[in-house]
Structures are given as C-alpha cells and as structure tokens.
Design a protein that fits this description.
alpha+beta; Arc Repressor Mutant, subunit A; two-stranded antiparallel ribbon; 5 helices
Length: 91
C-alpha cells in the first residue's frame, strides 16, 4: 500500500490537491478553480489518490465531495520517521 502512497505523492499536482483538501472537503469543481488542469486530468489524479487511499469521496446529491484521509498520510510519515530514527541511533 505504501508503494501507491509514495507514487501518488510523487506528482506535484496531486500534492497540491492534498494541500487543498487539508483545509476542507471539496468538490471537483472547487478543486478545478484552484488548479490549471482540465477536468479529465483532475479525474485521473483523483483516481490515483483514491487508489492510494489518500482521499475518500462521498456523494452528496449530484455532487461528489472529496476528503483527505489523514490516517494514510500518518502511516507514511511513521514509515519515514522509522528510517530517520534508526539513522540517528546509528543503526
């Protein structure tokens, strides 16, 4: 699972989407207002983020609202911190 997370985080547009979702849940239309991408490109990026479990989606009537999944980001951070801790300990 972490492989998908780190691959998803490797793209600057996807990182920007996560930054936007950090503050509040958004619809694709709201995300598009902040990015210089087409709707199909945004859908592609959101699909990758969903497959990595970095975002979740919920239908609200005719709209879909996307949310940041902090649990997965925390798991990735713990993984990286494990490397840093071992390095600092000299192991």
């Amino acid at each position: 699972m972490l492989t998908y997370v780190f691959k998803a985080l490797g793209d600057p547009t996807r990182r920007r989407i996560l930054e936007l979702l950090r503050d509040r849940d958004l619809t694709p239309t709201e995300i598009l207002r902040e990015l210089n991408v087409t709707q199909p490109t945004l859908s592609h990026h959101l699909d990758i983020l969903k497959r990595a479990n970095l975002v979740t989606s919920e239908r609200e009537g005719q709209f879909i609202r996307y949310s940041l999944n902090m649990g997965v980001l925390e798991m990735a951070l713990k993984y990286i911190m494990g490397f840093l801790t071992r390095r600092e300990d000299g192991k």
